Amino acid sequence: QSLLAGAPELATVLRDTPLVVYCRTGSRSAIAAQIFAQMGFSSITNGIHKEQVRSRIARGEWPDSTGPLA
After folding, report:
1. Could you give the count of Cα atoms lying within 13 Å of 23 in the half-sphere of its Cβ?
2. How many Å apart are CA 28 and CA 21, to the nearest integer?
3. Which of 10, 35, 36, 59 would give a disulfide with 41, using CB separation of 3.0 to 4.6 Å?
4. Cα–Cα distance measured from residue 3 to residue 10, given in angstroms and rounded to the nearest whole number
5. Over the chain, what HEC string results?
6. What is the pLDDT along the chain (70 residues), one digit of tens a residue?
7. CA distance 54 to 64
8. Quick check: 22 and 34 in contact, CB under 8 A?
9. Which of 9, 10, 35, 32 lies closest to 22, judged by CA?
10. Buried b or exposed e, range 24-56, using 16+ CB within 10 angstroms
11. Measured at the alpha carbon of residue 51, what is the angle toward residues 49 and 18, in degrees to the nearest 5?
């Protein structure tokens, strides 16, 4: 949790907001998902990596991203 202490933007995010986390291989995003869960977020998905996230959006498995997918 101390890793995200410098992210004040999270204070305004509702804890039931669907979040998709991803990284290059999925390892760091798995850790991030655990940290978000410990912070009280309840709808977290490990998207593994950017191309997998894009693929799942294209197949209609997830709604289109409302934020950056960079």
Report:
1. 9
2. 9
3. 36
4. 12
5. CHHHCCCHHHHHCCCCCCEEEECCCCHHHHHHHHHHHHCCCCCEEEEECHHHHHHHHHCCCCCCCCCCCC
6. 555 566 777 888 899 988 888 888 888 989 989 988 988 999 888 888 888 888 888 888 776 655 555 4
7. 9
8. no
9. 32
10. eebeebeebbeebeeeebeebebbbeeeebeee
11. 60
Q: Which residue has the tokens 């004040």?
A: 8
- Token readout for 28 is 């760091």
Q: Which amino acid is at 42?
A: S
Q: Show the tokens assigned to 47.
A: 């998207």
> Position 39: which residue type?
M
